[in-house]
Write a structure and sequence with these properties.
The chain is of the alpha/beta class. The chain has a seven-stranded mixed beta sheet, with helices on both faces. The protein is globular and about 60 Å long. The two termini are about 35 Å apart.
């Protein structure tokens, strides 16, 4: 199966993990296995857990990573990191990677319904289970749709788009990506349609985020990742839009924060100390990477290292 994800900030992310040959590592969004293979190649006595929620990705991972005996592949969601580690007899990891980009396979395989460039059933489910994008556009109230387009797509034409969807579905269900694209185009002024890329891009992003609960799972997963990290271990996260990046930036900043006592206090009474630190500022893709993969222009790599009292990942 051709399951690919064009690497963005690939070398930077692998280098940022500071991989130890005997360490324990987790690739939370293993996709086509590129990052996982690079991590596994650096291990001698260590272990890698490769996670993906997409069953098609897991099929590919099992094939591509079969030569690495130290790799375990699991079809799961990275928000369940702690039970996944426990199932493999582990308590902590020395490095955790999450590449949050939608894979090229998911975008380019028409029948998955992620892309506004191909006509296909309106789906967008990464796990291939549960509520689809078609379910949302055909059943949610106008106000709920408008909120999704505003909050997850930052779409200023959210009111007119959501109204047009409700009018269209009263005549017949909206079943395909191109049906939705036509509705979105008809809801945006002609001058605006000629600016800022494809007119359906923001709305499709918003629906995909809602269908897969991407931001909610990311918020929960970041706390779990840090709890599952050894002292001196690192989390590396590659985001692809501002909403994800804000969540990661805010979460990492909170973990790096120290005393919160008012400045007029002569001594600290809150007892709060930084739990981690940032080895470097957020990294952006190079001009060459953007030229090779225009989808990555908004990508950011953020890394945090855990500090504090030493403890061991060990076996349970």
């Amino acid at each position: 199966m051709d399951f690919e994800h064009v690497p963005v900030l690939f070398d930077e992310a692998i280098e940022a993990l500071n991989i130890k040959p005997n360490g324990i590592y987790v690739d939370c969004t293993a996709g086509g296995g590129g990052h996982s293979a690079a991590i596994a190649a650096k291990l001698t006595g260590g272990q890698l857990i490769a996670i993906d929620r997409d069953p098609e990705a897991v099929e590919t991972l099992l094939e591509r990573l079969s030569k690495f005996k130290q790799v375990t592949v699991t079809n799961n969601n990275f928000a369940n990191l702690q039970p996944i580690l426990a199932e493999n007899g582990l308590a902590k990891a020395d490095g955790i990677l999450a590449d949050l980009g939608v894979s090229s396979h998911q975008l380019d395989k028409a029948e998955r319904g992620f892309s506004f460039h191909n006509d296909a059933p309106l789906d967008m489910r990464m796990s291939m289970q549960g509520t689809s994008a078609a379910d949302l556009v055909n059943n949610l109230p106008q106000g709920a749709l408008q909120k999704i387009f505003y909050e997850y797509g930052e779409e200023k034409y959210a009111p007119s788009i959501s109204r047009a969807i409700v009018r269209a579905r009263a005549i017949k269900p909206i079943e395909t990506t191109f049906e939705l694209v036509d509705i979105i185009k008809s809801s945006i002024p002609a001058a605006a349609r000629r600016q800022g890329g494809h007119p359906a891009r923001r709305s499709f992003q918003a629906l995909r985020i809602e269908v897969n609960n991407e931001l909610g799972l990311l918020n929960a997963a970041l706390d779990t990742m840090f709890e599952s990290l050894t002292v001196g271990g690192r989390i590396a996260v590659i985001t692809f839009h501002s909403l994800e990046d804000r969540i990661v930036k805010r979460n990492f900043a909170a973990l790096c924060g120290g005393c919160t006592c008012p400045p007029q206090f002569p001594l600290c009474v809150c007892g709060k100390t930084p739990k981690g630190f940032l080895p470097f500022k957020a990294q952006k893709p190079s001009l060459e990477q953007i030229e090779n993969n225009p989808r990555c222009r908004s990508a950011r790599l953020r890394v945090i290292e855990k500090s504090g009292e030493e403890f061991s990942h060990g076996k349970l």
